[in-house]
């Protein structure tokens, strides 16, 4: 049973390793596609299994956040390096997302003396759309779906910034600003 309780952390760690492996196969779109799919699956499964096995932990949440950060950073670097033509016209929106997310992390760090991001529905949807968008770029060579990603990503980033600004130590698993409850500090 002890090994089963470590599966969520192992999945998060595998997403970290897979994120780095992306650059070793960057010129092989089929491998990139499957690495992205595997990372997406580990991202869904780590949290689900942690809750199901009742082994949620601070370490697990941090590994999940680190895995997400490295995975999405690797995806951005991959797309910028190898698929820039497909996303060029969406760059202002992508920059806006990064700016808002950075401000949110700064607000979190200043207010809470630690840095983390929230697992809102909007952030989860944005993550799914990133994976779908890049997979569609790999399959079609076009970035049409990226416009949807940018709109949802900006709204999600703004929601996270609002939560971080309004609440002291918001629950990392908060689902939405509409479900936020003030907690005593």
Care to describe what's here?
By secondary structure, the chain is mainly α. It folds into two domains: 1-82, no CATH class; 84-185, no CATH class. 74% of the residues lie in helices and 0% in strands. It is built from seven helices and no strands. Helix 2 (29-52) runs antiparallel to helix 3 (58-82). The mean pLDDT is 89.
Could you give a short description of this structure?
74% of the residues lie in helices and 0% in strands. The chain is mainly α and 185 residues long.
Count of helical stretches: 7
Question: Biggest β-sheet, characterized?
Answer: none
Low-confidence stretches: none
Radius of gyration: 17 Å
End-to-end separation: 35 Å
Given helix and strand content, the structural type is mainly alpha
- General form: globular
- Assess the beta-strand content as a share of residues: under 5%
> Quick check: average pLDDT?
89
Question: Helicity, in percent?
Answer: over 70%
The sequence of SSEs as H and E is HHHHHHH
Number of domains: 2
Total beta strand runs: 0
Keywords for this structure?
single chain, 7 helices, 2 domains, mainly alpha, 185 residues
What is the topology?
Elements: H1 2-21, H2 29-52, H3 58-82, H4 84-87, H5 91-112, H6 121-140, H7 146-166
Helix pairs in contact: 1-2, 1-3, 2-3, 2-6, 5-7, 6-7
